[in-house]
Specification:
2 copies of one chain form a homodimer. Chain A has 3 domains: about 130 residues, Rossmann fold; about 160 residues, Dihydrodipicolinate Reductase, domain 2; about 80 residues, 2-Layer Sandwich (Alpha-Beta Plaits), CATH 3.30.70. Chain A has 14 helices and 16 strands. In chain A, helix 1 crosses helix 12, helix 4 runs parallel beside helix 5 and helix 7 packs across helix 8. The longest helix of chain A is centred in the N-terminal third of the chain and has 17 residues. At the A-B interface, helix 2, helix 6, strand 12 and helix 12 of A face helix 2, helix 6, strand 12 and helix 12 of B. Strand 12 of chain A pairs antiparallel with strand 12 of chain B, so a sheet runs across the interface. Chains A, B: This is Homoserine dehydrogenase.
Chain lengths: ~425, ~425
């Protein structure tokens, strides 16, 4: 039997303990599949005394993950601590510098430092693998980087933050407003310590930027992801969209256009009966579109101990098998800096606005849309009982450029018939 | 730049021409991703004069695929001829014997000779890859063998014959009987030369047997797949199942039980609103369930030039990158001969029977079910206008063992109230 592959595991939270359990439970299965045993030699976490749901007594303990990363008895540095700065970054850099391969679940780190880390690893002949960083247990990095490697990718889309999808589907199913469900999610432990990472779309944006880099051969460019969180999605919009046959999802879309790379992570309407529209709770879905393959849809658990540890260990077994390739599927030095393109791909839009009940109010709004070159597909007026002085107007436009929508929305207030603020949500073809 | 990887392409039908197109169109992209150029040096097909939709002038031509397989200027033998015997088998064996890696789309060949081919390849240090053999463009072999390699797999399921799914969804959507839609499918060119390969479930059974071998570490055992085609699925059952919230699919299920390996490819009812239930036309779907990852669902085109060639070229790029592993994800000599288990996993069943309109007819049927230990979840009686002497009875049972269902169905004719034959279709939890 060949020599074992030795893991140094940094981080003993949910995912780290999941990794320990798999390594212990499936030692024989993994050895058979990997062609050699996979063992943990050392672990790292701040508090050694904390009660954890696994027997760690056989492993050396390092309080400092940088020390772990440099150990001679570690072949692969497994980073499941999280955080884009500080210890995770220092330790990952140290691991590469001392000639270790890296398996990481850290999307934030790669979204910010993926290029420099990949260049450093490739200069050292080391690999960085990050299946667990995107869409939990779904082997989407593998599908995109390897399975679809013969395709010119056209578009990559996904619902990749389970917490946001939990909140949106819970709002819809229970008819509860955002604030109430947000608080529920916090109490269930579904939110990051900084909830804005989830509900602000940042975590999902990190993931999208990694998929885009692989798909289009571009440097990771998280700063150019158009980000809009779910904090402004109202229960009214969820209900009204539903009535019109749509569900609201925090949807990421990356596509290469003639003007450059579009990346957006924003609330979108998608058809209620589409696979994305039907996605409930914490489940993730990624859609990969290539010129030869057409459309591939992958669905699975986006987080949690088992699924995330499964993804980490899939990467570890690839390394044990000797699979080696550049971090983003082609040499990092050859990745180009994509021209960021502000979203210009036309789409239908859902508009909701409250109009004062004045003669000609609707005509004024329609004129603003028409002046911006936007034509109307559907319109509904909803008069609430007891609210005679205003009415809610719902509009679904034909395909319109985002800039034209913004232009029209900018012009409507001057009509004097708008109460409050108009809401516009893109309807994505999926 | 490292030396090119040289392909010998056997078969210039739809898939072969698709491979040629990708190699020619994406030479730069593939070289960037694979780390080396990928070129075709020689091709093989019987008729050189046939008009084909690609420029083949740069390639050596072999009429005999065995000669192609032995050429010194070929590194990888790409077999897209099809057929489990004759030329495909001879040429694949010759390729391995002369030290080539093999990429094949040939499920029939592997379902029958996978074990001996894998052993021969591994003895020679060669790889056989077959992503294109299962579920067309969906990278499911990769997901199962690599991405989920750290999982003890629990169950693998799938709709993996696009022609059958086309026929079933077309029957449902257009309300047409099987024979009419079968003839349509034939005229559209959707059927194999021997249609029984499709509608008899054989092709899909081949695919299931390959997934089961990887999932459970067992030798490919196609002969033990319980096969039932779609030829007996009636438009009546499709309509009545639909009324009760189910769609009928040709569904493969492989699972390891305490009694041994269950493999079946049979028409099943699945909930109409489940991802499998909603699958339309030629699209394939595979469901992979592992102990850590939970459930992963993969959906995509199951056939066609682009998707199948995409899968072939994904395998080629893996080989170019130096990814090497045993054919079924662990050494072929270590695969165990699974004990085949006749399906015994209990499930609810849909039963349809026509009963003579005699007093106590229904009670007699219910007694047969009760005597077999089967309890009834739902029952409906449908009296057709103008047909007063008999009625159609639909029953959905609670979970029952297949043997108990067979026992009850065997007892019902003796009651003297059954007209024709009772239909029983398993309802699979998905």
């Amino acid at each position: 039997m060949p020599s074992p592959l030795r893991l140094g595991l940094a981080g003993l939270g949910t995912v780290g303990i999941g990794v320990v359990k798999i390594v212990q439970r499936h030692a024989d299965l993994i050895a058979a599949r990997a062609g050699r045993p996979v063992v943990i030699t050392a672990v790292s976490a701040r508090d050694k005394t904390k009660k954890r749901d696994a027997d760690l007594s056989g492993y050396a303990w390092e309080v400092d993950p940088v020390a772990l990363a440099k150990r001679d008895d570690v072949d692969v540095f497994v980073e499941v601590m999280g955080g884009s700065e500080g210890a995770a970054k220092d330790a990952t850099e140290a691991a590469i510098a001392s000639g270790k391969d890296v398996v990481t679940a850290n999307k934030a780190l790669l979204a910010h430092y993926g290029q420099s880390l990949a260049e450093a690893a490739e200069a050292k002949g080391r690999v960085i693998r990050f299946e667990a960083a995107v869409a939990g247990g779904i082997p989407v990095i593998k599908a995109l980087t390897e399975g679809l490697a013969a395709n010119q990718m056209r578009r990559v889309m996904g619902v990749m933050n389970g917490t946001c999808n939990y909140i949106l589907t819970r709002m819809q199913n229970a008819g509860l407003p955002y604030d109430v469900v947000f608080e529920e999610a916090r109490q269930l432990g579904y939110l990051e310590a900084d909830p804005n990472l989830d509900v602000g779309g940042i975590d999902a944006g990190h993931k999208l930027s990694l998929l885009a880099a692989i798909a289009f051969g571009t440097r990771v460019s998280f700063d150019n992801v158009e980000l809009e969180g779910i904090g402004n999605v109202s229960i009214d919009d969820i209900r009204m969209a539903d009535d019109m046959g749509y569900h609201i999802k925090l949807l990421g879309v990356a596509q290469m256009t003639g003007r450059g790379l579009e990346q957006r992570m924003t609330p979108c309407l998608v058809p209620a009966d589409s696979p994305l529209g039907q996605l409930q709770g914490g489940t993730n879905m990624v859609v990969l579109e290539g010129d030869s393959v057409g459309q591939i849809v992958l669905r699975g658990p986006g987080a949690g101990e088992g699924p995330t540890a499964s993804a980490v260990m899939g990467d570890v077994i690839d390394i044990a098998r000797g699979f080696r390739m550049p971090t983003f599927g082609r040499p990092a030095t050859g990745l180009v800096a994509a021209t960021p393109a502000k979203s210009a791909t036309p789409a239908p839009y859902y508009l909701r606005m409250t109009l004062l009940d004045k003669p000609g109010a609707l005509a004024k709004v329609a004129t603003c849309l028409g002046d911006a070159g936007i034509s109307i597909d559907q319109m509904r007026q909803i008069n609430q009982p007891g609210e005679d002085d205003h009415a809610v107007v719902l509009i679904v436009t034909h395909k319109a450029a985002p800039a034209d929508i913004a232009h029209a929305l900018g012009a409507i207030p001057a009509t004097g018939v708008l109460q409050g603020k108009a809401v516009a949500i893109r309807i994505e073809a999926v």
